[in-house]
Design brief:
The protein is mainly alpha-helical and 52 residues long. The protein has helices at residues 2-22, 30-41. Helix 1 packs antiparallel against helix 2 (30-41).
């Protein structure tokens, strides 16, 4: 299950800048969007990624 969590984190880090640019969200820096994505997939919201 640790490998799946790693794959999810890498995909989120790779896809977040692409999504931000495609949606023309210019007011939100990519770093902030990646932090928000981490909150969403992490323990705070959806709990998709397991803690090590």
């Amino acid at each position: 299950m640790e490998f799946l969590s790693l794959v999810i984190v890498v995909l989120a880090a790779f896809l977040t800048p692409i999504i931000v640019n495609r949606l023309n969200i210019n007011f939100l820096p990519v770093v902030v969007a990646e932090i928000l994505m981490g909150i969403v997939i992490g323990n705070s919201f959806l709990n998709i990624v397991e803690r090590d």
